[in-house]
Amino acid sequence: MPSSNARALDKAKTLPCDALILDLEDAVAPDAKEAAREAACDAARSGEYGRRELTIRINGIGTPWHDEDLRAVAAAGPDAIVVPKVGSADEVRSLVGAMEAAGAPARTTLWAMVETPGAILRVEEIASASERLSVLVMGTNDLVKELYAEHVPGRQPLLAGLGLALLGARAAGKVILDGVYNDVKDTEGFLAECTQGRQLGFDGKTLVHPGQVAGANEAFAPSEQAVEEARGILQAWEDGKGSGVVTYNGKMIENLHVESARRVLTMHEAVTALEADAS
Ligand SMILES: CC(C)(COP(=O)(O)OP(=O)(O)OC[C@H]1O[C@@H](n2cnc3c(N)ncnc32)[C@H](O)[C@@H]1OP(=O)(O)O)[C@@H](O)C(=O)NCCC(=O)NCCSC(=O)C[C@H](O)C(=O)O
Ligand SMILES: [Mg+2]
Question: With respect to CATH, is domain 6-220 assigned 3.20.20.60?
Fold first, then answer.
């Protein structure tokens, strides 16, 4: 959300989302940048956002606002500093050095947005460049722009980039979030894109409007059917203890499927705990 929008900053305190990205970059006009920076830093210090991870997206490397954004935001100590248009492993190391020099607390991590062709081709290097980099975020608007592509249902023009970014993130063992869906009134298109993002392997989706939160939560949390199947797989594995392979509902189950089932149940437990916490 734009850090220049006081109503949005207030509304964020009530939204059932896992994380907030308070923006200083594209959603903030040049003459509002300084006031937005102050508002975002105040929000990070306020302690008013509960269990939600509070992150701040600063302006990109080389822009007139970047250095001061980084200094001020690092000192405010959000959960993460989100940097747009990160292009290389060297940039990641230099950002981490600048965070340390500015006194960012140890808990403040770096989230890197990958949204240029060069970044997509170097995602694994970027993702592996520092332990402090915890999350990658797809910037699908900028990527579409840089590719001279078009936003179309099913995202066919972006599939190569999304796939490469996922491969790089997973090879480095990092979390990766899907890009935003711009049409805040198109619920059907948004839900289809959430489902596609989950099926591709993304850990979650970045959003631009409160009306998108419930749909994303539903799409990325394991469904009742997935939880039931995961429990069934674990039971079948337990019943066939000692065999390297069993079947469940007619399907072959090996150790790797058991690991996936455990991951589904762990995620389900985490979502259930968050829901209980929020109610
Ligand atoms: C897209 C919007 C400009 C739509 O704004 P608007 O028409 O004013 O929305 P509503 O009237 O429906 O708003 C209803 C209430 O919800 C609050 N609101 C709106 N958006 C947000 C939000 N993102 N977070 C929190 N709260 C929000 C409004 O204030 C209303 O509140 P109230 O009056 O109290 O009921 C607008 O939604 C918007 O600005 N969205 C975010 C834009 C943004 O942050 N863009 C940058 C991120 S996208 C990106 O980075 C792309 C990436 O880099 C890439 O390359 O892909
Ligand atoms: Mg962008």
Answer: yes
Interacting residues of 63 by C-beta distance below 8 A, sequence separation 6+: none
Pocket of ligand 1 (CB under 6 A): 1-2, 5, 7-8, 11-12, 23, 26-27, 84, 115, 139-142, 179-180, 184, 208-210
pLDDT digits (tens, 9 = 90+) for 62-97: 999 999 999 999 999 999 999 999 999 999 999 999
Q: Which of 182, 208, 212, 213 to mutate to test the pocket of ligand 1 (most atoms within 8 A of CB)?
A: 208
- Residue/partner pairs of 213-220 with CB below 8 Å, 24 or more apart: 213/15, 213/16, 213/17, 214/16, 215/187, 215/190, 215/191, 216/17, 217/16, 217/17, 217/271, 219/191, 219/194, 219/195, 220/194
Are residues 108 and 72 in contact, defined by beta-carbon separation less than 8 angstroms?
Answer: no
| Partner residues linked to 2 by β-bridges | 23
* Residue boundaries of the structural domains of the chain: 6-220, 224-278
Predicted TM-score of the model (pTM): 0.96
Encode pLDDT of 48-57 as tens digits. Answer: 999 999 999 9
- For residues 164 and 121, what is the distance between their CA atoms, to the nearest angstrom? 7
Asked if 24 and 3 touch (Cβ cutoff 8 Å), the reply is yes
Nearest atom in ligand 1 to the alpha carbon of residue 84 is: 53
Distance CA 79, CA 44 (A): 8
